[in-house]
Design brief:
Elements: H1 40-45, H2 55-70, E1 77-78, H3 79-89, H4 91-94, H5 101-111, E2 117-118, H6 120-133, H7 135-141
Antiparallel strand pairs: 1-2
Helix pairs in contact: 3-5
Length: 147
């Protein structure tokens, strides 16, 4: 397993029909109404080419699997589904970002009533953008890598 939060089978998700969690929550939203499927960790383990894959390869494969598990038959996500997915699967990266103008701009674009859907490429760009502005990124950078 790559160690990503999304590859942990017990990671909770919440229904698109539920309201978004308040920014004062102390943890990710609880599961409710999401279809039960094969856990991401099990899907990842079934990919033969990744059995000896690097952590980085497994991290990107995990992101692709999470996206594919939520995408429609055209392999796209609605903006509301994208926002829900970020709030349930990327919560630790986006918490505390509510007052940052760039974060507000990104979330506002997802709130717009639009028929436009998010493809995988745009989803990955969104993840990278949110990661770069995240307070968690600084914490990750400060992790001690040697003994």
């Amino acid at each position: 397993m790559c160690g990503c939060r999304t590859s942990v089978p017990s990671m909770k998700q919440y229904s698109v029909s539920q309201p978004a969690p308040a920014s004062t929550n102390k943890g990710p939203p609880a599961a409710a109404g999401m279809p039960k499927g094969v856990p991401i960790a099990k899907q990842l383990a079934s990919i033969k080419a990744l059995r000896k894959g690097s952590d980085l390869e497994k991290a990107f494969a995990t992101a692709a699997l999470v996206y594919n598990n939520h995408a429609d038959p055209e392999n796209k996500l609605s903006k509301s589904e994208t926002k829900s997915l970020l709030q349930s699967q990327f919560w630790h990266f986006i918490q505390g970002q509510e007052n940052k103008p760039k974060y507000q701009e990104i979330i506002s674009s997802l709130d717009e009533e639009s028929e436009n859907k998010i493809n995988f490429e745009d989803f990955m760009i969104l993840l990278v953008s949110l990661t770069l502005m995240s307070d968690l990124l600084q914490e990750i950078k400060n992790v001690k890598t040697t003994k």
